[in-house]
Amino acid sequence: MVDQTQGKTVQTTGHAWDGDLQEFNNPLPTWWLWTFYASVLFAVVYWVFYPAWPIGRDYTKGLSTLTFQRNGETVTTHWNTRAELIAELQSGELSQLQQRYLDKVSQASFEQIVTDPDMMAFARSSAKVLFADNCAACHGSGGVPAKFGLYPNLADDDWLWGGDPAHIQETLQHGRLGFMPAFGATLDEERLGQVAQHVLSLSGHPVDAAQAAAGRQIFEGEEGGCHYCHTKAGTGLASQGAANLTDAIWTVADVPGADSPEAKVERVKAVIRGGVERHMPAWSERLDPAQLKLLAVYVHSLGGGQ
């Protein structure tokens, strides 16, 4: 029906109440209706292809699938965000670029990596993430542990097991067991103090000359036997992970934090008395050779190299 109201033509539904109360007919715009129909169609298609409706303790998986590699095997599963991420990391443009650099690094020598700006930039950016995920919990985010002496400081350029990239990679691959026997049951407090005085003298700290001389006899003799690992000169043996006692870089005893000569002696005595036992696990089962190589380059750069 058409109603004439104040000179305007208005379409009505034909319904009337009380004789003159009518219901206007104002249909939705055509574009809006088609948009609504399209959204309904899209929803139905989405329900068919992707996970959508809960069914008891399960849900509809959809027809869409994704294929990716897991532990060397091809895996095909229904579409989900986790599988999509894994597939993207394996086949996406950025992942392919990363793989090309990984292949390049794997075939290059350490010298080539260190001297190539592009490979070195890739090593730093990639290994920084690997270090944060696997190493920072013990060694700190920048290679400096939160607590002195508990774990080796990787930023001080003092390398117990060798500081060139090849030795660092070997350490990462096979792990290390740092051990020094406790001498608390072998040496009394006086002789422990004498050895501590000698150890401090090796790096130029002021000590009691007579006490240090007595400590040297113990250090170099059968009673202490310290020279077997640290050498008579105190320079240490990388093959044993024995610290260099002449470089003034302290890895276990917090001598730099001591506020007096007596406190320095006590801190060195504590290490000699209690010994050292530190274990770093092997990472060869968790990280592949290319990742270990990247980490070796990154760790090497933290301490300035050797």
Strand percent estimate: 5-15%
**Termini separation:** 95 Å
Order of helices and strands: EEEHEEEEHHHHHHEHHHHEH
Residue runs with pLDDT of under 50 for 5 or more positions: none
Secondary structure tally: strands: 9
Tally of contiguous helical segments: 12
- CA gyration radius, whole angstroms: 36 Å
Helix content: 40-55%
Q: Order of strands across the widest beta sheet? A: 1-2-3
By secondary-structure content and strand pairing, the structural class works out as alpha+beta
How would a crystallographer describe the biggest sheet?
Answer: 3 strands, antiparallel
Mean pLDDT: 89
Shape: elongated
Question: Could you explain the architecture of this structure?
Answer:
The model has no long low-confidence stretch (mean pLDDT 89). A hairpin with a 3-residue loop joins strand 2 and strand 3. The protein has a three-stranded antiparallel beta sheet with strand order 1-2-3, with no helix packed on it. A two-stranded antiparallel ribbon has the order 4-5. It has 306 residues and is of the alpha+beta class. The chain is built from twelve helices and nine strands.
